[in-house]
Amino acid sequence: MMSPVKVEPVVNLHALVGEGPVWEESEQTLLFVDIMGKKIHRWNPTTNQITSCSTDAPVGFAVPARGGGYVAGVGRTFSAVDWSTGAVTSLVTVDDDKPQNRLNDGKVDPAGRLFAGTMGLEQSPGEVQRKQGSLFSVDSDLTLIQHLDQVDISNGLDWSSDGKLFFYVDSLKKTLDVFDYDVATGRMDSRRVVFELKDEEGLPDGLTLDADGKIWICCYNGWRVIQVDPHTGVRLQTVALPVSKTTSCCFGGPHYSDLYVTSASLGLSQSDLRVQTFAGATFRISGLGVKGRPPVEFGGNVLKKN
Question: Looking at beta carbons, which pairs linking 230-233 to residues 24 or more positions away fall under 8 Å?
Fold first, then answer.
């Protein structure tokens, strides 16, 4: 008999915009960011201890690097983060002609390349200057490639287990899209729509794939996370959360059987916050009956002296 699905807040930091959870296999910790709070957090579920690193601009994501440390999207810059010292060092800057842009979601492909997208200035949460963003990749030698332009809000990146499909969200389109993908070259083409969200489901935000190849999408302003079959376009499961602004998710825990979900509090009124007492928390969903996959680390040694 399958255990019931359980949703519990496990990191109640009241983040402004919690985002980008990544399970760190070696440390058994959860890495995530507060974009507008300008912080990178690590949470240890065994000790319930939280350690943090501050940045001098909004931080869209942070991912572990194979050679040690992290790569984070700070403002418009891919930056190296030395956790032991708190030092944040610029590696590559994008969108020089659009100084109000910032990096948003980021994730590493099966070959160790880091993909991340930019977005325009936010007038308010979820409302941005349209078509100002791009999608970039950075290789281990810091070679920068622009793959897409005229993006609204770049979000929700992940790859199929065989690396032949790349899933991507431009949130204001309200669709989950897929590209054919070449792991050897990092080339993507043949974009098509896999799934379109209904109005009551809000905007598609961060996502992750489980070990069976199904996709879990956080629904910003939708109070839920949904599971979708990318091959049939069928919605398989809906898990309700006690917060409206779910932002991103990843599988973690010793057996990758827990789904961790970040959320945001920015833009909620005082009356909203009285109802959504856990807005900005990170949640753990257990009992789903599925498992995730270990994340891939960025292929470069970002702490190496140049």
Answer: 230/165, 230/167, 230/176, 230/178, 230/194, 230/195, 233/194, 233/195
Beta-ladder partners of 122: 128
Cα–Cα distances (Å) from 168 to 160, 188, 301, in that order, read: 12, 11, 26
CA distances from 299 to 167, 174, 224 (A): 20, 31, 33
What are residue 232's DSSP bridge partners? none
What tokens does 211 get?
């070990």
Strands 175-182 and 187-196: antiparallel
Task: Tell me the pLDDT tens digit for each residue of 247-258.
Answer: 999 999 999 999
Q: How far apart are CA 269 and CA 137, in angstroms?
A: 37
Whole-number Å distance between alpha carbons of 165 and 160? 5
Check residue 275 and report its DSSP letter: H
pLDDT of residue 306: 43
Annotated catalytic, 258? no
Which one from 205, 210, 258, 272 is the annotated catalytic residue? 205
Q: Which helix (H) or strand (E) holds 4?
A: none
Answer whether 241's CB lies under 8 Å from 223's CB: yes
Place of tokens 């996959």: 293
